[in-house]
Amino acid sequence: MTGQNGGGLAERVMRAVAPEDDTVLWAMLKPVFRAGDTYAIDPAISRADALAFWCGGTHSAFVLEEGGQALGSYYICPNQQGGGAHVCNCGFITAPDAQGRGVARLMLDHALQEARRRGFRAMQFNFVVETNSRAVALWQANGFDVVGRLPEAFHHPDQGFVDALVMYRHL
Amino acid sequence: MTGQNGGGLAERVMRAVAPEDDTVLWAMLKPVFRAGDTYAIDPAISRADALAFWCGGTHSAFVLEEGGQALGSYYICPNQQGGGAHVCNCGFITAPDAQGRGVARLMLDHALQEARRRGFRAMQFNFVVETNSRAVALWQANGFDVVGRLPEAFHHPDQGFVDALVMYRHL
C-alpha cells in the first residue's frame, strides 16, 4: 500500500518489519512504553523484551516509511486460538515526530486489508485505555464499537485508576 | 484451604501444582481442550503445549485433591502488565468424573483468596463462551459482572459462531 502526503512529497510505503529495523522500532516503542499511559506494558521493559513482544510469537509486524523515515508500526496476530482464531488483534504505534499526520489511520486501513487477506472475520482491541481519547475516537470513526468496559482496569501514572475499553469490529 | 465432602469422606486439599502432576493434569485438560467448546485453545494442542499453557509463563497453577484423587485445577496470573497488572486472570478445569460436586466453586473461593493475598484488586475472565452456561451462571452467582460481549467471537464446534463474554469483579 502506498499513499501520498502531498505534491512532490515522498511516497509512504508499508512493508514487513525486518531484523535491521530493531533500532528504529525501539526508538518508537521506548517513549510510549516508558510513559506507561497507553499500553499495559511494564514501563521498565527492556529493549529485547519490547521487540520480542512487538514482533515475536504470533505477531506479524509492519512499518510505515516515508522517504526512508519510519512513521509508525503495527502488528497483527490472532487474538485467541482454537475457536477464537478467526478474530485478530493489532497494536499500533506512531513515531513521536509523526503525530497528527494521519499515520495511525493509514496503518489501520492497511491492517484491515491485511486482516481480511488472512481470513480473519473480526478485529478486537482488548485494552484501550479510556483516557487515550485520540485512539478511542479514531477506532470509533473507523467502525469499531465499544463492546466492553473494564472498570478501573488500568492504573494511569497521572490519573490513577481508569477504565479500559474492549473495542471490536466485524470485517 | 480444605473442605469436607460429608461425614467420614476424604478431606479436600488445594496445593500448588508440581511437575509430577503432569499426567493427572493432562488427563483433565485433554478432554476439555479436544472438545474445543469452552476454551479458545487449538483442539489439537499437544500435551507439552497444553501443560506449558496451564502452568508456564506467568501462570501459577493449583490442584484440588480428595483422598489423593485430583478433582480439578486452576491457574492465576496477571491479566496484563504495567498499568494493568493489578487485575488477575484465572482458568478453571474440573475432572470429568468430578462434575457437579462443587469443585469449581471451591476452586473459585481459593482463587479469590489467593488473588487478594497477591495484592490483585480485580479478577477478569477474558473469554467465557456464552454457551458455557454453567460457567456463566457460577461466575455471576459469585459476584462477576458481564462487562463485555464479543459478538460471534467463538466458533463453537456444534453451534457455529457464538458470543464470548468478558466477566469482571472487584476484590
In order across it, which strands form the biggest sheet of chain A? Answer: 1-2-3-4-5-6-8-7
What does the largest sheet of chain A look like?
Answer: 8 strands, mixed
Share of helix among residues of chain A?
Answer: 25-40%
Q: What portion of residues of chain A belong to β-strands?
A: 35-45%
What is the SS-derived class of chain A? alpha+beta
Question: Treating each run of at least 4 consecutive H or I residues as one helix, how many helices of chain A?
Answer: 4
Largest interface: A-B, 38 and 38 residues
The average pLDDT of chain A is 94
Assembly state (oligomeric): homodimer
Tell me, what's the shape of chain A? globular
What is the straight-line distance between the termini of chain A? Answer: 18 Å
Secondary-structure element string of chain A: EEHHEEEHEHEE
Number of strands of chain A: 8
Rg of chain A is 16 Å
Please render the helix and strand layout as text:
The structure is a homodimer of 171-residue chains.
Chain A: E1 2-4, E2 11-16, H1 22-35, H2 47-55, E3 60-66, E4 69-78, E5 87-94, H3 103-117, E6 122-129, H4 133-141, E7 145-156, E8 160-170
Parallel strand pairs in A: 5-6
Antiparallel strand pairs in A: 1-2, 2-3, 3-4, 4-5, 6-8, 7-8
Can you describe this structure in just a few lines?
The structure is a homodimer of 171-residue chains. With 171 residues, chain A is α+β, with helices and mostly antiparallel strands. Chain A is built from four helices and eight strands; from the N terminus they run E-E-H-H-E-E-E-H-E-H-E-E.
